[in-house]
Design brief:
This protein is of the alpha+beta class and 203 residues long. The chain contains seven helices and nine strands.
């Protein structure tokens, strides 16, 4: 499934990304679902859903259940179900051939972890965001937290006490499922609100 640009994300009215699709699929608890089932809950373009399901099927996260012979082959008839065991919490990041990709996965996982646990240290974020495919270091998590703090997404709950104790942060601007993106222009672009927030200062 192709990734959209920041400009496209800002002008789109649809939620983007794999995670909303995967979240809905997981809700079926291993029972069959259709493309229409997922579309009705996410309103994400049907082509995007088909493309991701194809990747998931090739990677053996999902199996495709063909309709009975003679049945109409349409989105409401062809069923799928998750067969991965265990079922990953983060949406599998795959290319069109079902091969794992890691680009951008660290940021997505960090943001999702922040939304999930609410209060955290950079070490917490790194541990939760690291998967078999994506590796997030303490330093990467610390840098992301620092930028989000300066842009107003986070609040310091308790200050760091080097070298052992890290700062504890709380997410105070939970704008949606898409991760805020750090830009070279010293600002954070939030695709959920389609707004850019200045960072300033030193990282």
């Amino acid at each position: 499934m192709s990734r959209i640009s920041a400009t496209e994300a800002a002008t789109s009215r649809e939620p983007q990304g794999r995670q909303p699709l995967w979240d809905e699929m997981v809700k079926f608890n291993g029972e069959p679902f259709t493309i229409t089932d997922i579309f009705d809950q996410t309103y994400i373009n049907r082509h995007t859903i088909r493309s991701y399901l194809k990747s998931l099927t090739l990677a053996n996260y999902v199996e495709r259940i063909e309709p009975e012979e003679g049945a109409i082959r349409e989105d409401a008839a062809i069923k799928f179900r998750i067969i991965a065991d265990p079922v990953p919490y983060h949406a599998p990041r795959l290319n069109r051939d079902g091969k794992p990709v890691s680009q951008g996965g660290g940021v997505e996982n960090m943001w999702r972890t922040m939304r999930m646990i609410g209060q955290f240290t950079p070490r917490d974020i790194a541990a939760h965001a690291t998967t078999d495919i994506v590796s997030v270091t303490d330093n990467t998590a610390k840098a992301y937290c620092t930028k989000l703090l300066k842009a107003g997404f986070l609040k310091v709950v308790s200050k760091a006490q080097p070298p052992a104790k890290q700062a504890v942060y709380r997410l105070i601007r939970n704008t949606g499922p898409q991760p805020p993106m750090i830009q070279r222009t010293q600002q954070v672009f939030d695709p959920n609100t389609r707004k850019a927030y200045p960072v300033g200062g030193q990282s």
